[in-house]
Amino acid sequence: MTAPDPAAPGTAEQPPAVEQQPAPPAAPAQPPAEDPGAALRAQLADAQALAARVPELEQRAASAEDLLTRLRVTRAAGLDDTFAERLRGGDESELTADATALAELLAATRVGPATQAATPPGSAPASAPAAPLPPGRRPVEALRPASAAPPAESTDDDPAAIARLVFGKPTTP
């Protein structure tokens, strides 16, 4: 008798079939690393470029804050914005004092001591001050109209006659 053939079907107990599992996917091939610190050096260069701009940007910010303070003080004093650059002072209190002094000076020149002394009390000034013009508009001169014909030349050498012809004043006794 021969021994049963283990490889023959249906004869002996066969071991369970082993299913073949697919192989795990291979890791993607990484490109050869050129320089592991290249990215860090690029970031360092960017940071250094930004750090170089810091003083310029701080100076621009300080200048903008100074201009803003000047404009605020100028408007609080009732002055036009064009006077903001003319104010003198290192801090807000000095700027405020200068703006107040400038506003008082401008108010005094608008009324003017000479015009107050020239007009007697209770009388109106000869001409009212001109109203401020809108920006971009030129003032119109208040000229007297010229005569149609040129004046005849006078043969008088009298200074009073010449003054009368030039200024149009009547003769005084």
Features:
single chain, 173 residues, mainly alpha, 0% strand
Termini separation comes to 178 Å
Structural class: mainly alpha
**Gyration radius over CA:** 49 Å
Q: Based on DSSP secondary structure assignment, what is the total number of beta strands? A: 0
Our count of helices gives 4
Give average pLDDT, whole number: 74
> What percentage of residues falls in helices of 4 or more residues?
40-55%
- Helix-strand pattern, N to C? HHHH
Largest sheet: none
Poorly predicted sequence stretches spanning 5 or more consecutive residues: none
How does this model look, in words?
The chain is an all-alpha fold and 173 residues long. The protein has a domain at 39-110. It is built from 4 helices and no strands. The protein has helices spanning 38-76, 92-111, 113-118, 159-167. Helix 1 packs parallel to helix 2 (92-111). The protein is elongated, with a radius of gyration of 49 Å. The model has no long low-confidence stretch (mean pLDDT 74).
